[in-house]
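Sanity check. The docking grid for thymidine-5'-diphosphate depends on where the pocket ends up, so I'm generating a full predicted complex first rather than guessing from homology. Inputs follow.
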Amino acid sequence: MVGKFIVFEGTDGSGKGTMLAKTAEWLFNSSIGHDKIVLTREPTFSGPGSQIRKALKSDKEPMTKAKQLLSLYFEDRKEHIDKLIKPALQLGSIVLCDRYKYSTICYQQAQGIPVESIVAMHKRLLVPDLVLVLDVDPKVAMKRIRASRSSIEKFEKDFFLGEIRQNYLNLKKALPDEPIKFIDANAEPDEVFLKVKKEIAKVLK
Ligand code: TYD
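Predicted complex below; grid placement will be based on this.
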């Protein structure tokens, strides 16, 4: 593949959406020399992705529908890779993706699905060039969520975010060969972004 595939991960409230937007602006305006920057996210808004988004809004209890969500996230991801991510990489784009298989590994594991089985089902899927995990204290994350939204979604409870954060911190054990980097994201956005830039610059040079 000619382009670069960069994934942003972290719990709800980790600030990955903000970092992704700042990264896009920086890359688009920089002299690094890439004309095509593609911003995308999972779950998507079409097909299986739209079914997931309905469940996230209507459900209040984090532990329900684990198996059903697991297969919807997986189907959504396969379509996303085939229809958008791979074609964009073949054109030489930098693809910045908000969440990928690491979210399934951490969230659906917290819902009770064994980590080994989630890792195994994703074995044949495209591996990114860089995975940035924005690590925040769940209290900081809940504060950001409450300040930025009027309604709280299915997984946005502090006990649950604490468990997901722990699953992220264990990711390297489950996937020792993947390019996963952790970034302390408790600070102000500009400070966090300096660290994000540093990691991305290493991959693009
Ligand atoms: P989120 O990043 O909050 O969506 P957006 O900011 O685009 O509205 O993702 C939606 C929720 O879905 C979030 O709580 C994490 C959860 N999720 C999983 O549980 N498994 C997955 O595989 C993915 C991609 C997301």
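Relevant for the grid: Residues 12, 17, 41-43, 56, 73, 98-99, 103-104, 107-108, 153, 155 surround thymidine-5'-diphosphate (CB under 6 Å).
Also worth noting: The first helix runs from residue 16 to 29.
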